[in-house]
Specification:
Blueprint: E1 8-13, H1 18-32, E2 37-44, H2 55-73, E3 77-83, H3 93-107, E4 111-115, H4 125-140, E5 159-163, E6 172-175, H5 180-188, H6 191-207, H7 220-240, E7 247-254, H8 258-262
Parallel strand pairs: 1-2, 1-4, 2-3, 4-5
Antiparallel strand pairs: 5-7, 6-7
Length: 272
C-alpha cells in the first residue's frame, strides 16, 4: 500500500446505512491508517426505512443514528440533504448532479465513493439515481462552466470507488480484517435500520413458509447477532477471493487520461 499524500474522501449515498453496509471497513482504514478526511453526503431522509416507526419518527431517529455511526468511524461530517426516501428519481438528475458537485467542490474531494452506476440488478431506484448523478458530478467537478454559480471554485476529483450488491468488473478487494469490528459497530449504530433488516428477513421467511426461531420477535441482542453473522459471512466471502479474512469489493476508477496520453503506468488505489 502506497500513500502519496493526504486526501479527502466524499461518500455519496442514498440512505443512512448504505455506506456502513458497503464500505465502512475501507472508510475506517482511510481514517485510522491514512489519516484521510472523510465526509458522508446522504441524499434522502430515510423515511421509508421501517415497518414500525412513523415517517416523522424515522427521519429524526435515522439522522441521529447516522451521526452516531459517523462518530464511530471518525468522519469529519455527516450531511443529510433530506429528499424523500424512495422518490429520489423524481428529482432531475442535473439538480442532484449540481448538489453533489457543490459538495465535491466544498470539501475538495480527491476520492468519491458511491453506488456503481453500471452494476446490474440494482432494484432500488434511489441507488440507481444517486449513482448516475455522482458519476457525472465527479467527472466534471473541475470544469468551471458546470454550475458557475457555485460559491466554491472547481475542484477535480481524481479517484472513484464504486460499490454494488452485484459487482461487475470490480477488481479491487480491500482487506478490512483489521476494521471489520468497527464496521459492524458502525452498522449496529443504525438501530432502526437493523431492525428493518431483520423484519424484512422475517417477512421473507414467512412468505416462504419457513420456521426460523431467531426471527420470531428477536430482541436487540439477537438482532445484533443476526446482523453481525450476515456481515461477517458477506465480507468473508469477498476476502476469500484474495486470501484475507475479510474484504470489501469495489470497481476502482481513475478520472482523466493523463497516463494514457503520456504513456505512464496506471496509478492504483491506496490499497492496491
Amino acid at each position: 500500500m502506497e500513500q502519496e499524500t493526504k486526501k479527502t474522501v466524499l461518500v455519496v449515498v442514498a440512505h443512512a446505512d448504505d455506506m456502513e453496509f458497503m464500505a465502512a471497513g475501507t472508510i475506517a482504514r482511510f481514517v485510522d491508517e491514512l489519516n484521510f478526511d472523510v465526509y458522508e453526503y446522504i441524499l434522502t431522509d430515510n423515511s421509508k426505512g421501517s415497518y414500525r416507526l412513523t415517517e416523522q419518527e424515522l427521519v429524526r431517529v435515522s439522522a441521529e443514528e447516522a451521526s452516531a455511526a459517523g462518530a464511530i468511524l471518525g468522519l469529519k461530517e455527516v450531511r443529510l440533504e433530506g429528499y424523500v426516501d424512495g422518490d429520489l428519481a423524481d428529482t432531475p438528475i442535473n439538480v442532484l448532479r449540481g448538489q453533489i458537485m457543490a459538495m465535491i467542490r466544498e470539501v475538495r474531494a480527491d476520492i468519491v465513493m458511491s453506488w456503481d452506476p453500471f452494476a446490474p440488478y440494482e432494484e432500488h431506484p434511489d441507488h440507481r439515481q444517486v449513482a448516475m448523478a455522482t458519476l457525472e458530478a465527479a467527472h466534471f467537478s473541475g470544469n468551471p462552466l458546470f454550475y458557475p454559480e457555485h460559491t466554491q471554485p472547481p475542484y477535480q476529483t481524481t479517484e472513484l470507488y464504486w460499490f454494488a450488491k452485484a459487482p461487475l468488473n470490480a477488481e479491487l478487494f480491500v482487506d478490512i480484517s483489521s476494521t471489520i469490528d468497527k464496521k459492524i459497530q458502525a452498522l449496529l449504530a443504525h438501530e432502526c435500520q437493523m431492525e428493518l433488516t431483520v423484519d424484512m428477513l422475517a417477512r421473507e421467511a414467512d412468505a416462504l413458509g419457513m420456521d426460523v426461531p431467531m426471527l420470531q420477535s428477536p430482541d436487540a441482542q439477537t438482532r445484533a447477532q443476526l446482523i453481525e453473522m450476515g456481515i461477517r459471512s458477506f465480507c468473508r466471502d469477498r476476502g476469500a477471493a484474495t486470501g484475507v479474512s475479510y474484504a470489501e469489493q469495489f470497481r476502482y476508477e481513475r478520472v482523466g487520461m493523463l497516463e494514457a496520453v503520456l504513456g505512464l503506468p496506471p496509478r492504483g488505489s491506496d490499497f492496491a
